[in-house]
Amino acid sequence: MNSVLLDTSFCIRLLKKDEPLHQNVIDYFQYFLEQKTELYISTIAIAEYSVKDDPNNLPLKMMKIIPFDFFDGKTAGEFHSILLEQKNKVQDIDRNVVKDDCKLIAQIFNRKIEGYITKDHKSFGQIIKPIAETKGFSIELLDLSISLQEFKRELF
């Protein structure tokens, strides 16, 4: 994997040492740096992060900030439409979560980012999978609750 989008949940746990998944995030972060994986953060994640902390506290010099633009908006709308056709899969998920996830997936799709790391593994099957299958693309999904060691074992 050459590139990964960092979700808000990743950024929160990166700096909060008292979070249960803090060590997993640190391990993945170091791994990405060692592998020279391009780290992307969306302005959407920055807005979410800003609710509780100043995003300048994040190691932004090691990340590429990607703005949400016209093309992302257009693609996110298409993705949300796909999910609306399959309402039964997303009816128990907060509508704002669905909208924001569609925006992030649109950025991944439009920039051909290979991976996405988040704590929200529920979105993998309910939001990301239906969109990826319909549009014919793939994303390496990394679940923060799975340690880097477990993830590496899955690779081999």
Structure description:
The protein has 156 residues and is an alpha/beta fold. The protein has one domain: 5'-nuclease (Rossmann fold, 3-Layer(aba) Sandwich), CATH 3.40.50.1010. The protein has 8 helices and 5 strands. The protein has a 5-stranded parallel β-sheet. α7 links the parallel β4 and β5. α1 packs across α2. The model has no long low-confidence stretch (mean pLDDT 91).
Q: How would you describe this structure in keywords?
A:
156 residues, alpha/beta, Rossmann fold, 5-stranded parallel β-sheet, 5 strands, 55% helix
* CATH class category label: Alpha Beta
Q: Which band does the percent of strand residues land in?
A: 5-15%
Low-confidence stretches: none
Indicate the structural class.
Answer: alpha/beta
| CA-based shape | globular
User: Which CATH architecture?
Assistant: 3-Layer(aba) Sandwich
Residue share in helices? 55-70%
Q: Strand order, biggest sheet?
A: 3-2-1-4-5
What is the CATH superfamily?
Answer: 5'-nuclease
List the helices and strands and how they pair.
Layout: E1 3-6, H1 8-15, H2 22-34, E2 38-42, H3 43-49, E3 64-66, H4 70-84, H5 87-90, H6 95-111, E4 115-118, H7 122-135, E5 140-143, H8 148-155
Helix pairs in contact: 1-2, 1-3, 4-6
Quick rundown:
By secondary structure, the chain is of the alpha/beta class.
